[in-house]
Amino acid sequence: MQARTKAEWRELVLSGRRALTPELRASEDQALVGLVTVGVADGSTVCAYVPTALEPGSLEFLDALRRVAGRVLVPITRGPGPLHWSEFTGADDLADASYGLREPTGPAWDPDEIRSAGTIFVPALAVDRRGVRLGRGAGFYDRTLGLAAPDARLITVVRDEELVSELPEDPHDIRMGWALTPGSGLIPLGEE
């Protein structure tokens, strides 16, 4: 049997996410709120993301991080290069942006601001046990994560069913060290 392509994986995962009931999504998002601060150092800088309607997490997820971390940075898209960053200060300071995203309206920092983060939460459609992450295909995170500090914890946030045995990998893909799922919490990755 031939392995699925990245495009086939994307279609499969997005179809599954679209089929989620609002109750299950809310339950999973609430579970993530209770798990997201595990291992985040008090007063530290954390990079995260503002979840879209089809991504695990919620604004409460970001608020939980704000209660522990000194700064929570979220991405701002500025063309095809690496992501820029802005501080998440609450839902009231978000505005609609490109690609159906919501972004902070405050000051923006250059892409290398990611180096200040000890923990980086990365959205994904799926991740495998080796740490290979499947994104949406635009490459923003692949171009950005290479700027992170070498000792930063790269944590991808997925549903439990989206942690799979093996995904296709390209040379430019940056592997994750951890997966955060609603049912299993923080799971170390890197098994070959």
Concise account of the structure shown:
This is 5-formyltetrahydrofolate cyclo-ligase. By secondary structure, this protein is of the alpha/beta class.
Detailed description of the structure:
With 192 residues, this protein is an alpha/beta fold. It is 22% helix and 24% strand. The chain has one domain (6-188): NagB/RpiA/CoA transferase-like (Rossmann fold, 3-Layer(aba) Sandwich), CATH 3.40.50. It has 4 helices and 13 strands. Strands 6-3-2-1-7-10-12-13 form an 8-stranded mixed sheet, covered by helices on one side. The longest helix has 14 residues, at 22-35. The radius of gyration is 16 Å and the shape is globular. The relative contact order is 0.18. Substrate binds at residues 50, 55. Belongs to the 5-formyltetrahydrofolate cyclo-ligase family. InterPro entries: FTHF_cligase, FTHF_cligase-like_sf, NagB/RpiA_transferase-like. This is 5-formyltetrahydrofolate cyclo-ligase.
